[in-house]
Amino acid sequence: MKMMRIPLLPWCPVLLQVEPQELFLALEGLYHEYMGMAEEAVMQQWAQLIQMYAQRIMGLQISDVRLQRLWKQVDVNLAHEWNLEELAALVGISSEHLRRLCQQQIGQSPMKQVTAMRMRRAMALLSSDSYSIEAVASRVGYENPFAFSTAFKRYTGVAPSLYRQHGSK
User: Fold this and answer.
1) Are 130 and 167 in contact (CB under 8 A)?
2) Do the Cβ atoms of 13 and 5 come closer than 8 Å?
3) DSSP structure string for the chain
4) Range from 54-68, 103-117, 138-152 carrying the lowest mean pLDDT
5) What are residue 131's phi and psi, to 5 degrees?
6) Calpha distance 59→68 (Å, rounded)
7) Contact between 42 and 166 (Cβ < 8 Å)
8) What is the pLDDT of residues 41-75, one digit of tens each?
9) Which of 108, 11, 17, 114 is nearest to 56 (CA)?
């Protein structure tokens, strides 16, 4: 884990232990898209990914500690076949209460949050040529690469292969 100086306030620099690679890849992807095709929809997806990574670094995304812990657990194992009941059990609340809490805190259902996390991770993984589309699908919880491609296109508006081409220019 690298140390990165991130000033929270101009007069109060703080050292945080963060892994900047994901944020760096997302910034690089946005840069390449801007310098290349500059498609607005793709640039918006890169910007959302950058925002999510920045919020993760700063710890500002979710105010409820239970949800912070839950999403950290999910993030560590995105390939797991998550369901609403299992997510609720991890937090120790009913599935309906988890649904309400997620709507209040993050503006979407728990399963949509899982999908968003998977797609954001897929975007980061696709920004490099290190993994095949099938490997990316598997790493984010899709056994079937075609189901992954459909979900990815629904989320981003472009197919994973096209996303990779635009991100690597």
Assistant:
1) no
2) yes
3) -EEEEEEEETTEEEEEEE-THHHHHHHHHHHHHHHTT--HHHHHHHHHHHHHHHHHHHT-S-S-HHHHHHHHHHHHTTTS---HHHHHHHHTS-HHHHHHHHHHHHSS-HHHHHHHHHHHHHHHHHTSSSS-HHHHHHHTT-SSHHHHHHHHHHHHSS-HHHHHHHHT-
4) 54-68
5) -125, 140
6) 9
7) yes
8) 888 888 888 877 776 766 544 567 888 889 989 99
9) 17
Residue 27, both tokens: 């910034």
- The residue behind tokens 């390939």 is 79
**Residue indicated by tokens 């657990």:** 73
Q: What one-letter code names the amino acid at 152?
A: F
